[in-house]
């Protein structure tokens, strides 16, 4: 038992400090989330059914308008393409990082982290310079004789997909690297000894074991892409608007909080549904096969 000595020299035991347990331990965090997240979101969603008149008119207008449906289609198509392309690029990179020497891995990680820490607006403007008709990419393609005239890579969904894929890559490489690094190399060696070729080792051993990391990274990238604003607004333009831009226009330009809240609720429901699906099918899987 710990003791202390007071001014009179009497030695006495230290008083026991009670630690909060149960609900008391998480009450401050719950209060913070409730005040700064749940309450504002609830108010916004209430306005979606109360303004300008009570009812579901805002949702009917969203679903019944071909313009708004096109914006929803743009959002889901671009988010899906960004997720698939990020997976196709990110998996080989994560696998290479997992088997590289430690010093080289540190250098690659430093580059990835530096790209994440660079200002998002600066990175998007850099892609605007690279993708424009007189930009470096078009000049290189024309110089190599691959194209005769500049490609339209900005102010369309192609530019949005390219820019967002670049930005999202670290968010899929990092979780994939963590999962692949935990896979026991002896599992792949055992598969090879049993007669599996490289393709079978990849498709029947490595990919199934890395599925939790792929699912976590894909969900993160898809959800972030659904709500992205800066890159689509700069590289896509008003003719190729996405859902986050639509919400911003409703709130900032049109001051239509009802429609903005309705669009935000659709985005929130889709996000929560995707998370529920992941928990349902992949929540109990053990990454790395351990």
From TrEMBL:
<keyword id="KW-0812">Transmembrane</keyword>
<dbReference type="Pfam" id="PF00528">
    <property type="entry name" value="BPD_transp_1"/>
</dbReference>
<feature type="transmembrane region" description="Helical">
    <location>
        <begin position="250"/>
        <end position="277"/>
    </location>
</feature>
<dbReference type="InterPro" id="IPR000515">
    <property type="entry name" value="MetI-like"/>
</dbReference>
<feature type="transmembrane region" description="Helical">
    <location>
        <begin position="159"/>
        <end position="180"/>
    </location>
</feature>
<feature type="transmembrane region" description="Helical">
    <location>
        <begin position="205"/>
        <end position="230"/>
    </location>
</feature>
<dbReference type="InterPro" id="IPR035906">
    <property type="entry name" value="MetI-like_sf"/>
</dbReference>
<keyword id="KW-1003">Cell membrane</keyword>
<comment type="similarity">
    <text>Belongs to the binding-protein-dependent transport system permease family. CysTW subfamily.</text>
</comment>
<keyword id="KW-1133">Transmembrane helix</keyword>
<dbReference type="GO" id="GO:0005886">
    <property type="term" value="C:plasma membrane"/>
</dbReference>
<protein>
    <submittedName>
        <fullName>ABC transporter permease</fullName>
    </submittedName>
</protein>
<keyword id="KW-0813">Transport</keyword>
<keyword id="KW-0472">Membrane</keyword>
<feature type="transmembrane region" description="Helical">
    <location>
        <begin position="67"/>
        <end position="89"/>
    </location>
</feature>
<feature type="domain" description="ABC transmembrane type-1">
    <location>
        <begin position="72"/>
        <end position="278"/>
    </location>
</feature>
<dbReference type="GO" id="GO:0055085">
    <property type="term" value="P:transmembrane transport"/>
</dbReference>
<feature type="transmembrane region" description="Helical">
    <location>
        <begin position="23"/>
        <end position="46"/>
    </location>
</feature>
